[in-house]
Amino acid sequence: QVQLVESGGGAVQPGTSLRLSCVASGFTLSSYGMHWFRQGPGKGLEWVADVWADGTHKYYGDSVKGRFTVSRDPSRNTLYLQMNSLRLDDTAVYFCARDDASYYFNYWGQGTLVTVSS
Amino acid sequence: QSAVAQPASVSGSPGQSIAISCAGTSSDVGGYNHVSWFQQHPGKAPKLIIYDVSNRPSGVSDRFSGSKSGNTASLTISGLQAEDEADYYCASCTSTNTLVFGGGTKLTVL
After folding, report:
1. A36 touches chain B (CB under 8 A)
2. pLDDT at A54
């Protein structure tokens, strides 16, 4: 069955980098658009970034543009989020989700926690 | 991205109906039919309950319904049940190929 498993979260200092992974099983990741979302402690959901199914387009939220990069490795069926220049307000649980058809997010991972603290 | 406004909280008694609004602009909610609603219980991943304004994914109760008028979308939950107590978020695509969420609404079942 379809499963998404995020990993790579942890506690880091401001200004450092971290790479999150989202391993897909039960489907071919590169056949779907994939998105990253996050949710800060006690806060609402925030869209972070996406990559289209054909890989031709990637879009980012204003708060992460220029610092985060989304990518895929078809050979590992894995989605990545490279996060650079991390800030305190990047502290959140990060989720990946599959886009089945124009913002139809029926499959989500369980999330991975990133804590940015000095 | 623009902010989409939702009420911070709503409440209702079991069996009643409630509605949650999602007020955006013509650059997001009003301009596209890609408005979704998510239910989120504490410590859990969001669950899609409405997509494309008014469509329900397979397995979602027909007590959940969605609609849109102008720049405002709405989620209606009828026949409230205790398990409906959760946070609800609307989301809309935007004119800049991004996605914007509402701030979330906490539903309390009295």
Report:
1. no
2. 87
The predicted structure's pLDDT at residue A59: 96
Look at phi and psi of residue A15 and say left if phi exceeds 0, alpha if psi is from -120 to 50, else beta: left
Q: Judge contact between B105 and B9, C-beta under 8 A.
A: yes
- Banded model confidence at residue B2, pLDDT cuts 50, 70, 90: low
Distance of residue A44 Cα from the nearest chain B Cα, in angstroms: 6
Q: Which residues contact B69 (CB under 8 A, 6 or more apart)?
A: none
Say if residues A94 and A38 touch (Cβ distance below 8 Å).
yes
| Per-residue pLDDT reduced to its tens digit, B21-40 | 999 999 999 999 999 999 99
User: How confident is the model over B4-33, as a mean pLDDT?
Assistant: 96
Report how far residue A51's alpha carbon sits from residue B28's, in angstroms, rounded to the nearest whole number: 20
Tokens of A78: 């894995």
Q: A with B: how many residue pairs have Cβ under 8 Å apart?
A: 61
Q: Which of residues 12-41 of B touch A (CB under 8 A)?
A: 34, 36, 38, 40
Decide if A105 and B48 are in contact by the 8 Å CB cutoff. yes
